[in-house]
């Protein structure tokens, strides 16, 4: 399932990336216009480089845009700021392939790979544990997980 590619997002991708974010958040199914505009502003800020050390990518598979990845490349770590796939591309190995690629990238640069997962997202947490991530910090609604070299 290594047929995916990552393309640095541009302003032309804002609508698509916003739709991916909205569709991947079940609590946002009935998104109001204000929330949608805030989401678009957030995506635009990411793409314009207004978030320090952050790069947002469009995930492509078989020449189709299928998801979003935001990666923070810091001196001492790689941090997955978000990974979302359209529903029909979930549970087919693409997410695992992307994560394995990031694990390799972090390992080659001798950096830990961290991410944040909502405690209610049991499916994602199960995947992260299968890939060797462990809980590093525990907060009320989220956990920070890490994959060390």
Polypeptide structure, described:
This protein is an alpha+beta fold. The protein has one domain (4-147): Gcn5-related N-acetyltransferase (GNAT) (Aminopeptidase, 3-Layer(aba) Sandwich), CATH 3.40.630. Helix content is 34%, strand content 32%. The protein is built from four helices and seven strands. It has helices at 14-24, 33-47, 94-108, 122-130, and strands spanning 4-8, 54-61, 64-73, 78-85, 113-118, 134-138, 142-147. The chain has a seven-stranded mixed sheet, sandwiched between helices. Strand 3 and strand 4 form a beta hairpin. Helix 1 packs across helix 2. The longest helix is centred in the N-terminal third of the chain and has 15 residues, at 33-47.
CATH fold node name: Aminopeptidase
Proportion of helical residues? 25-40%
What is the multimeric organization of the chains shown? single chain
Strand arrangement across the biggest beta sheet: 1-2-3-4-5-7-6
The counted number of beta strands is 7
By CATH reckoning, the class would read Alpha Beta
What shape does the CA trace take? Answer: globular
Element order, helices and strands?
A: EHHEEEHEHEE
CATH superfamily: Gcn5-related N-acetyltransferase (GNAT)
Strand content: 25-35%
Rg calc: 15 Å
Structural class: alpha+beta
Ranges where pLDDT stays below 50 over 5 or more residues in a row are none
What is the first-to-last residue Cα distance? 23 Å
